[in-house]
Design a protein that fits this description.
alpha/beta
Length: 142
């Protein structure tokens, strides 16, 4: 079984190699002991705001959205986890605001998105502690 990470890039100048992006995704999946496929959509502000409004009823920008397939749909004998949408311009702004490198913020949110697809969330305090600890652990490895 080969894991697949399909990347849809709707923005210019990503500033990150797609091979590097896939390596991060596969590293998280391996450590979480999951063999699965997923898609990453690199988008701009307008599309992200529209998705956030349509699916979360929040009429504002956000950095990352994850849409897990219902119970990890099987495609053939492979598990499809779902889709991650990342607003590249928003991540650039956040990196600047937080005083971190763009790549660091990008990978932090990519990992965040993958963890959501794997079923982690941060609604309850305890769950947030678990999710963010994993997120930073995986980020520190790259």
């Amino acid at each position: 079984l080969i894991m697949e990470c399909i990347i849809f890039q709707n923005v210019k100048n990503l500033g990150i190699k797609t091979t590097q992006l896939r390596r991060v995704v596969f590293s998280v999946l391996r450590q979480e002991k999951k063999k699965a496929d997923l898609s990453v959509h690199l988008i701009g502000d307008a599309r992200m705001k529209k998705l956030n409004r349509s699916y979360r009823r929040k009429d504002r920008m956000t950095d990352v959205l994850s849409f897990a397939t219902k119970d990890g749909k099987k495609l053939g004998n492979q598990l499809d986890l779902g889709d991650i949408f990342i607003s590249v311009p928003q991540i650039r702004r956040q990196a600047k605001d937080f005083g971190v490198l763009y790549k660091e913020e990008f990978f932090r949110l990519l990992i965040h998105g993958v963890l959501h697809l794997l079923g982690y969330d941060h609604m309850k305090n305890r769950d947030a502690l678990i999710m963010f600890a994993k997120q930073e652990k995986y980020l520190n490895q790259i």
